[in-house]
Every structure is written in structure tokens, then in C-alpha cells.
Write a structure and sequence with these properties.
The protein contains five helices and five strands, in the order H-E-H-H-E-E-E-H-E-H. About 30% of the residues lie in helices and about 20% in strands. It has one domain: Aminopeptidase (3-Layer(aba) Sandwich). It is globular and about 45 Å long. Helix 2 packs across helix 3. With about 150 residues, the protein is α+β, with helices and mostly antiparallel strands. The chain has a five-stranded mixed β-sheet.
């Protein structure tokens, strides 16, 4: 484990994984979402989203993106944790946990007091988020979505 990982409390990096804070390419982003069973995004949406976030990280093995995560938001009042995805062939090795730890560490470093970290949790990933202190917001508030059709 590097000194930087120890200082931030990040979990150990799984063997062979290299962290790329430039994030995935558009093609990798679309492919990882599909592989992980997430809803599809158009190239235009992926291009805009990847260019507009606050923090993006990809986990690479032999140069190939095998996981990713993003943080978006206004950089002050809210930070939205997005697109945590790991290739199913690589799941169960701590990659998702390590990606999410980096996302949370980024937000904690830059967020001012009273800022809120938010996410929409798919089951069973909610168990991972709970380990980082995330709790359901219901019944006081609920997450809502509206999709733009293709």
C-alpha cells in the first residue's frame, strides 16, 4: 500500500490494478455500464457526462478498464456519486470498494461543511454504500428519476 493510500484510509489496491484518474474512455464507459447490467447511455450523453464531472476514476488491469466511478455535482452543496461499475469477471476482488473509497475520499477532501453526498443505490450495492456511512433518506425524502427517451 502506498503512503498516499495509508494517509487517506483507502483499501489496498487489488493486485495488478492501476488507478487512472483520467477515467474511462467513452467506449469503456459505455461497455462497463453494459457489462455491469446498468442502463445504457448514448455516446453523446457519455461524452457530456465524462467531461462534466468533478472526479472520475478507472481501475485498469493490463491497460483495460475493469471498473470505474464518478463524482458530479456543484462542488459545494452536493456531490453525486455516480456510475460505480466493475466488470462482472472482476467482481469480488475489492475493486468496487477501492473505487468507491477513492470517490468518497475526493468528496471529503473538497466538500465544505454541510455539503451532502448523494447516490441512488441499486440492491445489493446498498450494502457497500452503507459501509461508508450512507443511509436511506426515506421517509423524509425519496430519490426520483425521469429518463429522457432515445
Amino acid at each position: 500500500m502506498s503512503d498516499d493510500e495509508t494517509a487517506r484510509g483507502d483499501p489496498p489496491t487489488p493486485p495488478g490494478i492501476v488507478w487512472d484518474e483520467g477515467g474511462p474512455t467513452i467506449e469503456e464507459y459505455i461497455a462497463l455500464r453494459a457489462a455491469a447490467g446498468m442502463s445504457p447511455r448514448s455516446r453523446a450523453a457519455a461524452r457530456a457526462g465524462l467531461g462534466g464531472g468533478l472526479y472520475t476514476v478507472a481501475a485498469r488491469l493490463d491497460g483495460r478498464a475493469v471498473g470505474m466511478g464518478r463524482v458530479a455535482g456543484d462542488g459545494g452543496t452536493c456531490f453525486l456519486m455516480l456510475d460505480l461499475a466493475v466488470d462482472p469477471t472482476m467482481q469480488g476482488q475489492g475493486i468496487g470498494t477501492a473505487i468507491f473509497a477513492r470517490m468518497v475520499a475526493f468528496a471529503e477532501r473538497v466538500a465544505p461543511p454541510t455539503a451532502v453526498l448523494m447516490l441512488l443505490a441499486d440492491v445489493p450495492a446498498d450494502r457497500l454504500y452503507a459501509r461508508f456511512g450512507f443511509r436511506p433518506s426515506a421517509p423524509r425524502s425519496i430519490g426520483m428519476i425521469r429518463r429522457i427517451p432515445e
